[in-house]
Amino acid sequence: MRWQESLFVASVVATVGMASPPASAQGVGKYLAPKDQIVVIRAGRLFDSMSGRLVENQLILIKGDRITDVGAGIPIPAGAKVIDLSTATVMPGMIDTHVHVNTIGNTPNLARRALRALANAQIDLDAGFTTVMDMDSRGTFFTVDLRDAIHAGNVQGPRMQVVGQSLNQRATNYYPDADSEHTYSGFTEGKNINSPWLARAAVREAKLHGVDYVKILRRRTSPAPCICGSQTAG
After folding, report:
1. Model confidence at 227: pLDDT above 70
2. Quick check: 107 pLDDT over 80?
3. How would you classify the pairing of strands 53-63 and 38-48?
4. Which helix (H) or strand (E) holds 71?
5. Cα separation, 98 vs 161, whole angstroms
6. Which helix (H) or strand (E) holds 31?
7. What's the whole-model pTM score?
8. Which are the contacts of 139, defined by CB distance < 8 A and separation ≥ 6?
9. Distance between CA atoms of 213 and 203, rounded to whole angstroms?
10. Which residues 6+ apart lie within 8 Å of 80 measured at CB?
């Protein structure tokens, strides 16, 4: 089996083994695994990330969207679908903690942004990344909607954590987006957060839109701005 196929199966394994989608989304989306589905994967070699070594001839038992057991001698339930990867190496899905799924600049066309973001998210999934964090949507909060659509099983993609729009103090905006459509208001949207009160208002607004984290840009003493680490919005 080609390594691309092995990596794809690894992505599937890691995707179904992570936390379940929100309760309101379970059993609704086309791409959610049925709760009564049982899949067993025969892995010729399995990378154990806990020990950092490869183990051979392992069985991976998946019930619904959860990996319930892994081992060499676990029983195969009756009626289970068996995927034979006995000649392949299986690994957990990878996680990318800094991506920008919007890669079409500052176009004001939000539909184009959303479609490009979906395509990029699916490219990440096909490459073996089952979880990504989008660190700036470059305008509006459409990445929140994309995250929710993936979690609900309406479209295929990696699980996402998103920050929506970044928060910027005066003179720290490093990309031109004056022509973009935004939903922040006033000084916040003008990239001119210049007081603790405006910063608090911006964080509250971001949280209201449903982001997972808040990203703040700052300027160092050198001319080039740098990106700070993200902070939770909760």
Report:
1. no
2. no
3. antiparallel
4. strand 66-71
5. 10
6. none
7. 0.74
8. 102, 106, 110, 113, 165, 177, 180, 181, 182
9. 9
10. 38, 39, 40, 61
Predicted confidence (pLDDT) at residue 21 exceeds the cutoff of 70: no
What is the rounded CA–CA span in Å between residue 31 and residue 169?
40
When pLDDT is cut at 50, 70 and 90, the band that residue 58 belongs to is very high
How far is residue 175's CA from residue 144's CA, in Å, rounded to a whole number? Answer: 21
Average pLDDT over residues 111-129: 93
All domains of the chain in start order, with CATH: 3-92 (2.30.40), 95-232 (3.20.20.140)
- At 12 the pLDDT is 47
Residue with the two structure tokens 């964080």: 203
The three state secondary structure string of 82-113 is EEEEEEEEECCCEEEEEECCCCCCCCCCHHHH
Q: What's the rounded Cα separation, in Å, for the pair 118 and 123?
A: 9
**Alpha carbons 118 and 217: distance in angstroms, whole number:** 25
